[in-house]
Each structure stands twice: as C-alpha cells, then as structure tokens.
Amino acid sequence: TLTLTALKDAMIIKNITLKPITDLPTFAEYFAECVQSGAETEMVPSEDVIHVLRILAAVKQSLETGQVVCL
Prior knowledge:
By secondary structure, this protein is mostly helical. Helices cover 44% and strands 0% of the residues. The relative contact order is 0.08.
C-alpha cells in the first residue's frame, strides 16, 4: 500500500515508478557480507544480530537436550 497525503495544498505528482525488487541478497547473505567485510549493517547493528543468534542457538540446544543452557 502506498499512501500520499497533502498536509496543506494539493500535491502534483508527475510520475511514480515502481520496480520489482530483484537480485537483492537475503538478510543472511547481507549480514554475512557485513561480518566478512567488517561493515556495520544498516538495518540492525551486527552486535545485536550476533547476540540474538547466540540466544537462538541456546534455545535450540535447550530444546534438544532438555537442559538449561547458560549464555
């Protein structure tokens, strides 16, 4: 959905072009590239993503073993 709202006067829109998103990496590919290059991700700080991945790995391990997993 695209919504354009004029706050004061009427808007004149000459053209809107929508293009399909193609050839974009998945988030996992994008994140891996950022980690390899040392670049900060634009969407989520790398440190936060790594922290969440560690939590998810611990949850998986706990579910598989039935044991508490300390981080």
